[in-house]
Design brief:
The chain has five helices and eleven strands. By secondary structure, the protein is α+β, with helices and mostly antiparallel strands. The protein has an eleven-stranded antiparallel sheet with strand order 6-5-4-3-2-1-11-10-9-8-7. Helix 3 packs antiparallel against helix 4.
């Protein structure tokens, strides 16, 4: 009799344990899935640089709105951006005038056909210009070390909507530019905002067509 009672109690306890474990398995599975998903979606500056560094080349159209104290109305420019890893970058202005800025390694070439201008200089000899070039080229190359060389770098947001904020630390650059904000999604740079120390601003929007 006693033996039968203990067996019944043991069976009852076993059923309760299985019952509880089945119920516990549901939330635990959700917690585990959420944890794994969070790990998979983790997005920080290292993840961004890694994603951008895998881009070998690209050509995009852009529009740029410049607001300047000397102008009564904002100036609207448009053209193309061309990048080839790891160090070639070209910004070509097509409207309202033609101008081309080509960077390859340490060399910057500026061309303005209408004015008959073509000038080549070394970036190393012009630290402020070098810093400005690297605000775009270094992110495209996934080169965080170079960004840190010229800027105090801050990062925030998610994979779908991230923000890279750059505050110049290079003295000559810091006299001209207050900050640069680069916005994007995944391995795409969508928008570049520049505010100069005098209050002039520039907002470049990059098109991503299929």
């Amino acid at each position: 009799m006693t033996f039968g009672t203990r067996t019944g109690r043991a069976c009852c306890l076993a059923r309760r344990i299985r019952h509880i474990s089945r119920w516990l398995a549901i939330p635990l599975s959700f917690i585990l899935a959420a944890t794994l998903a969070g790990a998979a979606e983790r997005w920080d500056i290292d993840a961004l640089m890694s994603a951008l560094s895998r881009i070998e080349s690209g050509e995009k159209r852009y529009t740029e709105i410049k607001t300047m104290a000397l102008l009564k109305e904002p100036m609207r420019l448009s053209g193309t951006l061309i990048y080839r890893a790891p160090s070639f970058l070209e910004k070509r202005v097509l409207s309202p005038f033609e101008e081309r800025y080509t960077v390859d390694g340490d060399s910057l070439t500026i061309e303005n056909p209408a004015k008959g201008v073509k000038q080549t200089l070394s970036l190393a000899s012009q630290p402020a210009i070098w810093a400005f070039v690297e605000s775009i080229r270094a992110p495209l190359a996934g080169d965080l070390a170079t960004l840190n060389r010229f800027y105090k770098v801050s990062f925030g947001g998610s994979k779908r909507n991230w923000l890279l904020a750059l505050v110049p630390t290079e003295p000559d650059m810091a006299k001209l530019v207050r900050f640069i904000r680069i916005r994007g999604s995944g391995d795409r740079i969508d928008r570049v905002e520049i505010e100069e120390t005098g209050g002039d601003t520039s907002v470049m929007t990059i098109e991503h067509r299929p």
